[in-house]
Amino acid sequence: MSDLQKVVLAYSGGLDTSVIIPWLKETYGCRVVAVVADVGQDEDFPAIRQKALSSGADAAHVVDVKAEFATGFLFPALRANAIYEGQYLLGTALARPLIAKVQVEAALAEGADAVAHGCTGKGNDQVRFELAYQALAPQLRVIAPWREWSLRSREDEIVYAATHGIPVSVTKAKPYSVDQNLWHRSAEAGVLEDPWQEPPEDVYALTVSPAQAPQQPAYVEVSFKEGTPVALDGTAQDPVTLIRALNRLGAAHGVGRVDMVENRLVGIKVRGVYETPGGTILSTAHRALEAITIDRDTQHYATLLAPRYAELVYNGQWYSPLRQAIDGFVDVAQRSVTGTARMKLYKGACTAVGRTSPHSLYQQDLATFGEDAVYNQKDAEGFIRLWGLPARVFAQVNPQRIRQGLRHPVR
Fold first, then answer.
1. Does residue 229 sit in the same domain as residue 348?
2. Torsion on CA atoms 23, 25, 28, 31, rounded to nearest 10
3. pTM (predicted TM-score)
4. Which residues span the domain enclosing 120?
């Protein structure tokens, strides 16, 4: 008999977690509490809760954390320009530490002695969940069925679900692994496992094909306050409403599709197809506004930290001291990032075509190619001589090392 009395499962209603409920009860003889975190996946939550109970859960709870997801996770990553490997806007990676937090809170409230998740032993999510558990409640035991059970594939899971009378939407003909929330939708598996094959259109569910997008572009003005988006077209919006509005607009114009092969933390390369319409607009607008409001040295240093921040998120280290420390830098750097970016959406493209800010460092009388009265071009002569002084001295002392690449070396 297992010593486990109660397990809290991070439940989604999908294939993996649907079969985990009966498996936990059969394997450990424990009570199972299913917890669903509403991070904006637009599901029928009453139906999901009922499905959990019908699958054998002793209790099932739905917790609405959309606002916390936006303000506490999405916007900090947006302000840091966190984009993994230059393409992935981290929709799933940002949701996992919040879902784990909700799960831990439920486990503590329920007096449970373990938490469980449906992540495979090949993926990143197992790390994201379990690092969060360790940071928030290290005393809880962790159960990862994919690392324990005899089921070896999604096809095995489909058979198991059918045997136990559990309805699932995944089929052998369309076995995509899908994750969706307020920020994005991702799809893996199936035909996508062949990186040579173009994703079929049925992989996409949020965005229209750019080829089918409207023939006329759309424009939207996104306003920020200290790096955080606060308004669209001059109208203040709460975070969730703002993101959803941009999702609808971007999706209608085919914006935000990404097809990439990425490097998982465990060392496996995997292909993912992402749809992040609103996030793509916000990310592009934010960087456009930064370009006129942040000084050169701070902006350049921020570009060095951005990929590291993205790695921390991707690798499950949201609750790490380093991520929090980088947030301290970002908070200071973003103080001047207040203003508006005008975005053009057309046939899948998202382009900043205007930006303005009360803190703009862009001065037309300095930047102009026309006549000006504020920049003495003769000053550049002395500046260049001083800037080049180290190179000139090195060349004088080491002439052969510098000049050996010349077609006609100086003798």
1. yes
2. 140
3. 0.91
4. 6-68+90-173
